[in-house]
């Protein structure tokens, strides 16, 4: 008996020790990535850091000398279609990705004319046929070396596979199937590394895909957890205290009750946008997308939990809170956009905040500890589907004139399905307490129609006509206070500013334009200080890094994505491309396809 008791004690001690080591190891990996993100020599995440600030403290390039920026070097990827996201820079190596076929290149910053290694995956070309809006890819992710794995680059392939590569050699470490293209589910999202996991979303709501997010172990690709946006609570992984701070948001059973019958099984809610993470709270933040189909008549109810901002425990995937921004969405306002973290004063108290500019034309600022709504306001005063958000209930007060139900001709809806904000990553200057946003300014007419669901085929049910908004342009850039809702400045752009912004302590905001410019504006005033015409239009974001004590700015060129589908696929019908062709009919007169990265320095 004594031996048995002793063995049990040893066993228990070993398990506790192993668990502690595992927690310690993953926490250490987390901290290492955070430290790398703070170093000016690196750009280790698509979002720059876990807070998704897209902000650099560097001042070598600043408002006084940015006019002297010149091309330092460039690299052609040899791939057409839209180049979203941005390159990564880690330890003197730039990692470049492409849209389908999703090639990856490692380039030495000491010898940028030399490719260190390249990875060209073999994948199912059928994925191209079910990709919604061009065959884009939003970027790579990086994990520092751990006890059981080398420094790793993660790639999501359009055909639904997640790939892990040795960052030094390009060797394939493991490959895992995340999505089934036979059902219309593809991968365009950038992976997101947290602790010992890599987080991956899904695409395909336009084909009736049921959306989910998955955490894979960095070491071997084994699934750690998976959470859905619709269905039973156990699939959505709601914690016991889910929305306890805001029960009026809704709590349990609603992933089934707010759908008619089994419609939740083909109900959308995919998440192909961006993540943020608070390492103190160990909480992951992201948005679920639009319900399917777009025709609202075919899916009565609030359709939870699509269109929702999630706050989840990154270790288990359990949801601590979920705030649905657009219940029963009628306009394809997919809510997967940028999540920016900041700490600011609210009612005299320093508060952990999450700010989210949504496709629906509203900006939401939440307390990221419990999901409480701090403010919700219009990105632009021309937003008309909603009058305002009731801050007590969190519900939008709609204007029925702009509803899209079957017996109503909906015209002049602002914003369009493209949203006043789409997939771009924005930036936050913690010194100025301002977010800088590249936005769309596009409105639409909407004609719904009935259609059956067929696996792997488009399940939309609406014909859209899109056109410039009331201010006469297709894009804007804005500086915004996310607590008060005040816009410090705004400027118009001829075309949508699709890819997002990057801000620096040198009083600069960089961004690219669809007609092929990279621009720098003064972050205090919005004054244009510099621009350069690139070989093709921009739908990705700039990055900045330092190498050999010199600051550089880099950006992808390569027009495409949803706004470029008409140009990319040579479409003429203004309703084609889910309405994008009509909105961007002039784009082909200003730029053409071509993919690569351009790097600038003083």
TrEMBL record:
Residues 1-29 form the signal peptide. It comes from the Bacteria. Keywords: Metal-binding, Oxidoreductase, PQQ, Signal. Residues 43-374, 474-553 form the Pyrrolo-quinoline quinone repeat domain. It holds the Pfam family PQQ. CDD domains: PQQ_MDH (cd10278). The keyword Ribosomal protein does not apply. Its cofactor is pyrroloquinoline quinone. Belongs to the bacterial PQQ dehydrogenase family. This is Methanol/ethanol family PQQ-dependent dehydrogenase. The lineage of its organism: Bacteria, Pseudomonadati, Pseudomonadota, Gammaproteobacteria, Methylococcales.
């Amino acid at each position: 008996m004594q031996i048995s008791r002793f063995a049990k004690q040893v066993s228990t001690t070993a398990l506790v020790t192993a668990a502690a080591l595992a927690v310690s190891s993953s926490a250490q990996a987390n901290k290492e990535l955070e430290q790398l993100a703070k170093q000016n020599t690196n750009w280790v995440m698509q979002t720059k850091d876990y807070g998704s600030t897209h902000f650099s403290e560097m001042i070598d390039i600043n408002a006084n000398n940015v006019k002297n920026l010149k091309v330092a070097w460039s690299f052609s990827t040899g791939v057409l279609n839209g180049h979203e996201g941005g390159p990564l820079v880690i330890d003197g190596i730039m990692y470049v990705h492409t849209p389908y076929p999703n090639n990856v290149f490692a380039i030495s910053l000491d010898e940028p004319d030399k490719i260190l290694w390249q990875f060209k995956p073999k994948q199912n070309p059928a994925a191209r046929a079910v990709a919604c809006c061009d065959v884009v890819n939003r970027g790579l992710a990086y994990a520092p070396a751990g006890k059981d794995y080398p420094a790793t680059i993660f790639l999501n392939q359009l055909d639904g596979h997640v790939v892990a590569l040795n960052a030094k050699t390009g060797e394939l470490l493991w490959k895992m199937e995340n999505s089934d293209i036979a059902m219309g589910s593809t991968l365009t999202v950038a992976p997101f590394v947290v602790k010992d996991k890599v987080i991956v979303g899904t695409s395909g709501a336009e084909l009736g895909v049921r959306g989910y997010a998955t955490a894979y172990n960095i070491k071997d690709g084994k699934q750690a957890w998976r959470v859905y946006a619709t269905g039973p609570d156990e699939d959505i992984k709601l914690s016991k205290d889910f929305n306890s701070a805001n029960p009026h948001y809704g709590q349990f059973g609603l992933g089934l009750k707010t759908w008619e019958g089994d419609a939740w099984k083909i109900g959308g809610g995919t998440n192909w946008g961006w993540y943020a993470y608070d390492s103190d709270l160990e909480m992951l933040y992201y948005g679920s997308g639009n319900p399917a189909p777009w025709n609202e008549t075919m899916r009565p109810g609030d359709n939870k939990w699509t269109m929702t901002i999630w706050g989840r425990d990154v270790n288990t995937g359990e949801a601590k809170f979920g705030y649905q921004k657009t219940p029963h969405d009628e306009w394809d306002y997919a809510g997967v956009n940028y999540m920016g973290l900041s700490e600011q004063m609210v009612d005299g108290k320093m508060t952990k905040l999450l700010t989210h500019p949504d496709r629906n034309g509203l900006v939401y600022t939440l307390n990221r500890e419990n999901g409480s709504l701090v403010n919700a306001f219009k990105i632009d005063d021309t937003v008309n589907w909603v009058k305002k958000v009731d801050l007590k209930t969190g519900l939008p007060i709609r204007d029925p004139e702009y509803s899209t139900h079957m017996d109503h001709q909906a015209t002049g809806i602002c914003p369009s399905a493209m949203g006043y904000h789409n997939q771009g990553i924005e930036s936050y200057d913690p010194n100025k307490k301002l977010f800088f946003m590249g936005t769309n300014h596009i409105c639409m007419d909407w004609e719904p129609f009935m259609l059956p669901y067929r696996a792997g085929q488009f399940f939309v049910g609406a014909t859209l006509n899109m056109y410039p908004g009331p201010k006469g342009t297709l894009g804007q850039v804005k500086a915004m206070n996310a607590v008060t809702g005040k816009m410090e400045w705004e400027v118009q752009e001829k075309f949508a500013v699709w890819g997002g912004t990057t801000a620096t302590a040198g009083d600069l905001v960089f961004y690219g334009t669809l007609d092929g410019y990279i621009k720098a504006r003064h972050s205090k005033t919005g004054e244009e200080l510099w621009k350069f015409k690139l070989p093709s239009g921009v739908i990705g974001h700039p990055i900045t890094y330092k190498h050999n004590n010199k600051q550089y700015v880099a950006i992808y060129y390569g027009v495409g994505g949803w706004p470029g589908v008409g140009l990319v696929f040579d479409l003429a019908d203004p309703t084609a491309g889910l309405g994008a062709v009509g909105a961007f009919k002039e784009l082909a007169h200003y730029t053409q396809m071509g993919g690569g990265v351009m790097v600038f320095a003083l």
